[in-house]
Write a structure and sequence with these properties.
Layout lengths: L4 H9 L4 E5 L2 E4 H16 L7 E6 L2 H13 L3 E6 L4 H11 L3 E4 L20 E7 L7 E6 H5 L2 H8 L6 E4 L6 H13 L2 E4 L6 H7 L4 E3 L2 H8 L11 E4 L6 H10 L4 E8 L3 E7 H6 L6 E2 L4 E5 L2 E5 L10 E2 L3 E5 L5 E6 L4 E3 L2 E3 L1 H8 L5 E11 L3 E10 L6 H9 L10 E4 L13 H10 L3
Parallel strand pairs: 1-9, 3-4, 3-5, 8-9, 8-10, 10-11, 11-12, 23-24
Antiparallel strand pairs: 1-2, 6-7, 12-13, 13-14, 15-16, 16-17, 18-19, 20-21, 22-23
Helix pairs in contact: 2-3, 9-10
Length: about 450
């Protein structure tokens, strides 16, 4: 199955059903499919099969329309946030030989191709952006089958089907958002693109939303906006970062009928594991059990994955160098990234383990840990802290850490910040934190 074929089938069977809602605009399956077909034929007159197309549009409906059209025309779509700087786009175009760049105001060729090219399910359709350690994202090339083969399992695990109305917060350039959108459309459901956070609860109520996909940071925002329990939502899905047990409990109270699922995955690997609310509360350090069809093994402390959802270049078995272990009940515990290890005078410190301790400290709302260069020790352990208690001091935090972990793993540097900068995937922007620290007076 090609990524757009299920959408076309729904357009034939339920042409007047609403597929997309963005603000006051609504689009039926028939209307959107007609626009997609027409634009694809115009694009096919100017792009070659296999051409890589950077799609940089500010409107999510336009993003999706041009993405589908590029793919149907035989191209490979690379979605990027419409607000991305020109220098980043230029770097991606050069590094990955992207032949075309669609931006706001783009007009396709006037010519219309008489027919669209044949496309095989093993063809690459997507260049998925994955955060790079240098600050420039890397692109992971995805074929149709690696995504469409996961949709049936996603429906079962997440408790989602074609009757659902999905509320989606965040840009489609983030692979998990795009996947959630394409999956629900393949099922024949309706996707509502979230507006400003101030409007989230009003939009969810007005559109009778039954399912939500957000990164944990957005769920924490949503929890501050929901004035009363909402019984109509039956599925809450999250990914990109770990959901803390406090947020899970709060979501359970706000959405009592919802199945809450957190999944762990990567652009290279697809879905790897999942955990429901009971798992998250009973085993807060775990990322759950293997996703259907996935085999997880641990080799020298590194997580390896065999799966039909792997990107083509990573088959048949791959790792993204995440560190982990599997407990006696088969639950995967994510320990951190091998590349993120802090080398403090020969002692290897895993930032995520220190972060877990810091978040248990009374008076700490959030924490991120990373290594900063030190001429003597190689690196020092630095913690960026968001206070919950404005009176908490660095000495209090160090004392708390020393009572729970080895002294060498305790932060030698503590920096108090108002907020933790985030990436589109919900993870902390560690590079920005380190750059800000390096620029600050010592």
């Amino acid at each position: 199955m090609l990524i757009y074929q299920s959408f076309e089938l729904v357009a034939q069977k339920q042409p007047e059903k609403i597929c997309l809602i963005n603000g006051n605009k609504r689009f039926t399956y028939r209307e959107f499919n007609r626009q997609m077909e027409y634009l694809a034929k115009r694009l096919a007159a100017q792009i070659q099969t296999g051409d890589r197309v950077l799609i940089q549009l500010s409107d999510p409906v336009a993003q999706l329309l041009h993405f589908f059209a590029v793919v149907k025309a035989g191209g490979v779509g690379v979605l990027i946030d419409g607000a991305s700087p020109a220098a980043l786009c230029a770097e991606l175009i050069k590094r990955y030989t992207l032949q075309h760049h669609i931006q706001d105001g783009f007009q396709p060729a006037a010519a219309v191709a008489p027919a669209l090219p044949p496309i095989d399910r093993s063809a690459v359709f997507l260049g998925a952006l994955s955060s790079g350690s240098s600050g420039t994202p890397k692109i992971i090339w995805r074929d149709h089958q690696s995504w469409t083969s996961a949709f049936a399992a996603q429906s079962r695990v997440f408790g989602i089907d074609g009757a659902d109305i999905l509320y989606l917060a965040g840009n489609l350039s983030y692979t998990a958002n795009l996947n959630a959108c394409l999956h629900l459309l393949a099922e024949g459901g309706t996707v509502v693109f979230a507006g400003n956070p101030r409007t989230w609860f009003r939009e969810m109520t007005a559109h009778h939303v039954s399912a939500v996909f957000m990164v944990p940071a957005h769920y924490r925002t949503l929890l501050q906006l929901v004035p009363e329990p909402v019984g109509s939502v039956r599925s809450l899905v999250t990914a990109g970062a770990k959901m803390d047990d406090g947020a899970v409990r709060a979501l359970t109270g706000c959405f009592p009928a919802a199945r809450i699922v957190e999944y762990y995955g990567a652009s290279e690997l697809g879905h790897v594991s999942y955990a429901v609310a009971a798992d998250l509360l009973a085993r807060p350090q775990s990322v759950g059990k293997a996703f259907p069809g996935v085999t997880i093994t641990i080799e020298d402390g590194v997580i390896w994955v065999e799966s039909p959802y792997l990107a083509p270049a990573y088959r048949p078995k791959a790792t993204v160098n995440d560190l982990g272990k599997i407990d006696e009940n088969g639950y995967l515990i994510l320990l951190g990234r091998r590349q993120g290890l802090i080398n403090f005078g020969g002692v290897k410190v895993i930032p995520e383990q220190v972060e877990a301790v810091l978040r248990q400290c009374p008076g700490v709302a959030d924490a991120v840990v990373g290594g900063v260069e030190d001429p003597v020790r190689g690196q020092r352990v630095c913690a960026w802290i968001v206070r919950r208690d404005p009176d908490i001091q660095a000495a209090d935090i160090r004392a708390f850490c020393r009572s729970r972990i080895n002294r060498q793993c305790c932060p030698q540097i503590i920096v108090f910040v108002e907020t933790i900068p985030g990436l589109a995937n919900g993870k902390a922007d560690r590079l920005k934190l380190k750059e800000n620290y390096q620029r600050s007076p010592k």
